Amino acid sequence: MIIELDDDFDLRKTGDCGQAFRWNFTDDFTVRVRAGKKETIIHELAPGTVEIDCSEEDESFWKKYLDVDTSYRDIAALVDKEDFHLSTCAENAKGIRILHQDLFEMLITFIISQRKSMPAIRTSVERLCEACGSTCFPDAASIAGLTDAELAACGLGYRAEYIRLVSEKVADGSLNLKSYESLSDDDLKEKLMEIRGVGEKVASCIMLFGYHRLNAFPKDVWINRELTEHYPDGFNYKKYEPYCGVMQQYLFYGATHRK
DNA sequence: AGGCAGGTTCTTA
DNA sequence: TAAGAACCTGCC
Questions:
Q1: Å from A100 (CA) to B8 (C1')?
Q2: Which nucleotide is nearest to A116 (CA to C1')?
Q3: Whole-model pTM?
Q4: Phi and psi (nearest 5°) for A150?
């Protein structure tokens, strides 16, 4: 399938802004993407045009995954031109799209992410997939079925307990992530934070990258540094509703890709 | 070699 | 409500 977007889309930046940990680039325009149970190769043919290797029945899945119906050009245009810092970040980050990813995968991945470096996150996620005997992301029952030793071998450290607990709950149905989709942003965050191992930051990541709540604004060390250095009097969240999360991605990309 | 990493929880006041 | 310590490992 070939998708021609009348919109900004930069494959490398989208995969490089910390939202996906199972994107493996072979060059700037070619990436193997594994998402939930699916896998494909995405090839950027020209600015805004990508080719995706998939069956006809999977086309809608990948379109939703890449969020083809949202105009990131329009969102970028909301950036206050007098905010020189954000403008610069947005310009550099132009083409980032917020992926619409699997809920359970986001939950587990971002629990893993706490106090870990990017490479370490990737390693752990990879090992978790392998431990469950597949290249696709394991379902809750598979993770719950691992022994303590197998789970520990994924390099999860103290997070192993969090992951086992929540996987058991999802597997036995006492936690239904899908049912949370109808909640308001505030209620959703509250429910997610009831999960052991999920605090404010991880909940925001799950909201932004899983539930596609584009107003969620995860505050990690990078963003906190941005906020104190460039917005000592406070960031104007109100101005960017309901797209604060996209602005967060611009700031994050700017902070992590500064020479 | 040893500190630190895309936080969260627990404890203490 | 707020500040500080502890937490597992892998990476650099």
A1: 25
A2: B5
A3: 0.97
A4: -65, -40
